[in-house]
Amino acid sequence: MRRALVRFRLARGSTSRPLATVAGSFSARLSDSLVQLQREWNHLAHVQADLQDSMPACSAADLPSLHKRLHQSYTLLLKSVVLDPEAHVNDVLVVFDSICTRYPPTEDDLLHMISWARRFENPDHAIQILEMMLQSGWPLNAKACNRVLEVIARSGDLQRCSALLDRVCKIGFQPDPRTYAAMITACERAGDVATAERWFSALLDCERREGDVVVVGAMMSLYARHHRLQECMDLMNSMGRLFDVQRNVQIYTVAIDAHRRANCVDGCLDLFQQMLEEGIHPTVVTYNCLLSAVATTGDVQKSIPIYRDMIGRGLRPDIVTFQALLNAHRYSPAGKITSMTMTPEARELPLIARSLMIEARFRYGISPDLKMYTTLVHIFTLSGHTVDALMCFVDMMAAGFQPDLTMYSALMNALSDQGAFHQCCNLLATVKRNGITANVQLYTAVIASLRHHFHRLALHALAIANDMFAERVRADAKFYRVLLQVLARGRHIQTCVDVITAAVARETSFSPDDWSSIVSTVIVELQRSPDDQLRFAQAIPTLLPFPPEEYPISLQEALSSMPQPYDVVR
């Protein structure tokens, strides 16, 4: 039995690092840690059985201490899993279930679970765990109540947040600054500025407390989200007088974010410099706000030094950092150039994107999310690297992300530019299969791919158009221009006339300029066939919903440029 007690080294001391001692992936580390703890639990069961048999070598006084240490080991494991960014929801539930099947969960266990619910923004789980705490007879825990309120506040459910606050106040809970901050956050997400201002006014009537700066930050964040920059800055400038608190990094970060939302990049840079001059050290979130603001201007020359300064301060970039860097390149002048007018700078964009991805993956262990994949696809497609875009698309699907309409549009436009009609059709079928409603831009891109095939596949455009109308997708003027361009290149003059006739009956909201651009497209495409051009022009008065004397100037110029004489006003 003494040898059996020696085997409890894990429960006695080594379990303070249950995950760090196991190499490999997160799932493997977690599995090994649970196996180790289960082994210790089995040992304790054997010890307890020996004690029940009254074996003389056992000491009953050791057993509660061993159980307490093992429970602490499970609690430490739960904390490790809750804080680990690689942990999945099921990982947390497995560990918590392991505790509940062996011991009554302690207050620390439940606080860790509330933190987990806050991390995954799951208000239902947070409320259930708070209920467990109240039913277990523990004294009301202010930290737990505030954490649950924060979880509900982030969901924007102001009514639910108010109901919970009323309930806990009836059983002795005293609101503190974090409570006020949570309620203001709930108002922010719900879009209720007036209620937030009432909560803030109520705080002004209270005795000053240490955490008041948290409430100021929440109120500034509300003003920032609702694009009320002046009120945000007024509050920042008056916080010392109202609350006798100093600005901290969170206050400056919110102020920078407010200027970012107002598209005031210079204001962001000025605030950042002011913060440094006051000796306040920026966080990763501060740098991310600054990089996101600069990214909207496409100023790569400013983004890179900011990123290097962040690394030089020993801060670890996250996925938002790399998304901002990619956006800076995407919105740069090089990123706005189409594949038809490629420049050396634009040709370097895919290389830069790949290098950023490699740095994110292999240096910092950051896996792309849907936004990053979408940005990468845009960069690859605009630079003509369709194969890379498709590989990125496949990689994204393998990672479990479902592409959105923006992603499909970028891919469809890239395939359309290369005339890959059949691939465009397959991609359109994939969109429908995934339950996404295709818009007119997708159908237009499919038809546009036929421009590279001239007359060989021209009539396929009609099939695509009929499919779109069957799906009740509303056409725009660009759709008709592309459709008629394809048909005109195939010399399907009568089909063009029929399409315009049907369009006039269907599209009652088009302006004369819209009809002018549609008809002019056919005239321009028929320049190589003057006879067909004249035949089509002669049919125009019977097609358009307005008389020839009201033709827009653009249509009159198109008709006047015809090689064969044509009287514009007939």
From TrEMBL:
PPR repeat ranges per the UniProt record: 248-282, 283-317, 369-403
Cellular compartments per GO CC: chloroplast
GO biological process: mitochondria-nucleus signaling pathway
Keywords linked to the UniProt accession: Mitochondrion, Repeat
InterPro entries, alphabetized: PPR_rpt, TPR-like_helical_dom_sf
PROSITE patterns: PPR
PANTHER family, per database record: PENTATRICOPEPTIDE REPEAT-CONTAINING PROTEIN GUN1, CHLOROPLASTIC, PPR_LONG DOMAIN-CONTAINING PROTEIN
Name listed for the protein in its UniProt record: Pentacotripeptide-repeat region of PRORP domain-containing protein
Species this protein is from: Plasmodiophora brassicae
